[in-house]
Amino acid sequence: MKKECMEYQSMVEPFLEGKLSGSNRQGFLEHVRRCKVCHEELEIYHVIYSVLDEINTDSGKETTNYMETLERKLGSASKADSRMFGLSAAYGFAAAGLAAITAGILLLIL
Predict the structure, then answer these.
(1) What is the pTM of this model?
(2) Which residue, 48, 53, 54, 72, shows the most beta carbons closer than 10 Å to its own?
(3) pLDDT in tens, 16-58
(4) Rounded to whole angstroms, how far apart are CA atoms 37 and 41?
């Protein structure tokens, strides 16, 4: 893995938590739009955060279009960029399954 990618992957969680701002946020957004590996890392974390948020809010509303909510988080990402870095159905189901397993484990612990 490139050193640059390691730096940007460390910014995934702060970005999703809304704690990344200024030039760091801009650099992060530019990087994940062009780097498939980092974009996939962002997608995985986004799905996990979304599932955990659904469990914690207990609203009864299930978000099923995780990639659409990620696209909104990325803001100015165009649909073409999203398609370029889109997940295959199998990868999407795997990420959602991982998030569900993680959430289930957390529920058992709590």
Answers:
(1) 0.58
(2) 48
(3) 988 988 889 999 999 999 999 999 999 999 988 888 877 777 6
(4) 6
